[in-house]
Amino acid sequence: DAGVIQSPRHEVTEMGQEVTLRCKPISGHNSLFWYRQTMMRGLELLIYFNNNVPIDDSGMPEDRFSAKMPNASFSTLKIQPSEPRDSAVYFCASSSRDRGYEQYFGPGTRLTVT
Amino acid sequence: GENVEQHPSTLSVQEGDSAVIKCTYSDSASNYFPWYKQELGKRPQLIIDIRSNVGEKKDQRIAVTLNKTAKHFSLHITETQPEDSAVYFCAASNGPGGYNKLIFGAGTRLAVHP
Q1: Fewer CB near the terminus (10 Å): N or C of chain A?
Q2: What parts of chain B have a pLDDT lower than 50?
Q3: What distance in Å separates the CA atoms of residue A54 and residue A110, rounded to the nearest whole number?
Q4: CB–CB of A45 and B101 under 8 A?
Q5: Which residue in B5, B42, B102 has the most chain A C-beta atoms within 10 A of its own C-beta, making it the best mutation to test that interface?
Q6: pLDDT at residue B98 in the model
């Protein structure tokens, strides 16, 4: 099993640009989570999906952030327009009812907005 | 909503000593309590978890205890080794319908000195 796959691993962009982060969950997992990690705020849940349906997006900081899951094997997190305070590591995680809901994290995308 | 507090924020021990990290949660409906270890520059990885129907769980040198009445749970690491040095996160879950929305504590940076 390849585990959760995220791309890109590193992204450097200028303020105002659109950023798209991608995630491929573990095959067969039915839940997908997007987290943001910073020194100041720790690990924050942004949004999660069950069976491709967004369940809770209360952690999405503002309208500049959006997430989609068009099918069971792909999700995107988009920031438009990006700001320097969006700089963080963004993790995607997936879980399965069959595995007791243990969340497996991807390697993360380190985003730097200048 | 759920709130998880974690103490201490940093912990320094000598190799071979024990380390204890404590967390409290606010939502009495929480029923799943995982612990994650995050090494520098890497993803969080599950090391042990406990559900509300048990009071203690052990896996080699690590153990977790849960006190539902007091709404706190603890991670115990015995015979610490330098490779235990990392940031440890506790979490609690009270997601609807059994889905596993995790709320994380702020993390404890553990340093094990040879």
Answers
A1: N
A2: 97-98
A3: 24
A4: yes
A5: B102
A6: 46
